[in-house]
């Protein structure tokens, strides 16, 4: 049985049998990350955050300067304090402000769909567009510490985001932390990789996304690349494992039930082959166990994003008005819900 066969067989079980992974991977800190925009990253993060919060308290953070994750969770509300307010004194020192406490906001106060569940809810540390300028501040401080041969200072800077999240996690009593990152590596995404134990990588079924996946693998593994170079300069920081590869916007128009179309299968197969070349980066011994297939969510995805409703909460056959168009949640949303619940079971 090929790697593609294994992935498709499990996908069919997810759709037909409501299959879930019996046990998650046991990490506490995750980041949703891909070095390319437009792959459905914030949508995956939003829906995964909802699924995680159903079982236990989840701490969420947005380090992308576009702040899409923040807007999905908090709507038009603009938080008084955000991740940038915490990073500035952490990276630049106390002369640039006091370290703020009580950074996070309870999501259900701003997004009613997050109410209920067996867990203690979700809390989010909002993003800030100022993060666009953050890389220059970070690398100026890193280069200063490195020029002084101060590995401890380099490590403290690189682990600064983890320190912030760790403190907030104690306040919120969160079991898991989920960070939505920028498609640009420098700055916030770099610190997010240093802060987490595992990455969830959305990969759209197209050529550019496969190129970005290879770039991510190389950044994580090659000693000459920036990430590993700074890890070494800090005295040897750990590299996050790949917890999941989420194939997004997969076409489902196939003659065979619960099977992606031929073009999508080709891209999935190539992503598997690439992952097998970098198998040591994965938490699972067999990288195919980390693969999750998610369909193109079509109108359900547009409704979910516009109305800030997790796909699991969408009601079949209900109509919504999005950008002047009347859209209906059709039966295919049930399939999407199964895929997202399976992804959540991996973490």
Overall number of strands: 10
Order of strands, widest sheet: 3-4-2-5-1-6-7-8
Question: What is the CATH first-level class name?
Answer: Alpha Beta
Q: How much helical structure, as a percent, in the residues? A: 40-55%
Mean pLDDT: 93
- In quaternary terms, these chains amount to single chain
CATH homologous superfamily annotation = P-loop containing nucleotide triphosphate hydrolases
Q: Helix tally?
A: 13
Describe the structure.
The chain is α/β, with parallel strands linked by helices. It has one domain: P-loop containing nucleotide triphosphate hydrolases (Rossmann fold, 3-Layer(aba) Sandwich). It has helices at 3-17, 41-53, 68-74, 83-92, 134-147, 151-158, 160-172, 185-195, 207-221, 226-233, 262-277, 298-307, 332-346; strands spanning 29-32, 58-62, 105-106, 122-125, 176-180, 198-204, 241-250, 291-295, 319-322, 325-328. The strands form two sheets. Strands 3-4-2-5-1-6-7-8 form an eight-stranded mixed β-sheet, with helices on both faces. Helix 2 (41-53) crosses helix 13 (332-346). The longest helix is centred in the C-terminal third of the chain and has 16 residues, at 262-277.
């Amino acid at each position: 049985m090929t790697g593609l066969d294994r992935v498709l067989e499990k996908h069919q079980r997810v759709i037909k049998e409501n299959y879930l992974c019996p046990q998650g991977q046991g990490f506490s800190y995750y980041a949703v990350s891909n070095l390319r925009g437009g792959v459905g990253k914030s949508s995956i993060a939003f829906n995964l955050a909802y699924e995680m919060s159903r079982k236990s308290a989840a701490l969420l953070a947005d380090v992308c300067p576009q702040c899409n994750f923040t807007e999905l969770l908090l709507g038009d509300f603009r938080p008084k304090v955000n991740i940038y307010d915490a990073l500035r004194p952490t990276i630049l020192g106390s002369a640039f402000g006091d370290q703020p406490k009580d950074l996070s906001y309870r999501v259900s106060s701003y997004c009613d769909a997050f109410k209920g569940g067996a867990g203690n809810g979700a809390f989010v540390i909002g993003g800030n567009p100022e993060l666009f300028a953050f890389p220059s501040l970070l690398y100026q401080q890193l280069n200063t510490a490195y020029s002084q041969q101060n590995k401890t200072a380099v490590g403290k800077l690189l682990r600064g985001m983890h320190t912030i999240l760790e403190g907030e996690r104690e306040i919120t009593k969160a079991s898991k932390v989920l960070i939505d990152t920028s498609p640009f590596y420098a700055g916030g995404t770099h610190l997010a990789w240093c802060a987490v134990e595992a990455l969830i990588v959305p990969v759209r079924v197209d050529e550019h996304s496969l190129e970005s996946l290879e770039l991510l693998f190389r950044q994580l593994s090659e000693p000459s690349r920036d990430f590993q170079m700074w890890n070494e300069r800090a005295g040897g920081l750990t590299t996050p494992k790949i917890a999941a590869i989420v194939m997004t916007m997969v076409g489902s128009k196939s003659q065979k039930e619960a099977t992606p179309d031929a073009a999508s299968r080709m891209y999935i197969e190539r992503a598997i082959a690439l992952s097998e070349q970098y198998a040591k980066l994965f938490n699972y011994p067999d990288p195919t166990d980390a693969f999750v297939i998610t369909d193109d969510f079509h109108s359900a995805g547009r409704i979910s994003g516009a109305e800030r409703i997790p796909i699991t909460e969408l009601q079949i056959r209900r109509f919504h008005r999005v950008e002047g168009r009347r859209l209906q949640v059709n039966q295919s949303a049930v399939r999407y819900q199964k895929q997202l619940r399976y992804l959540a079971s991996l973490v």
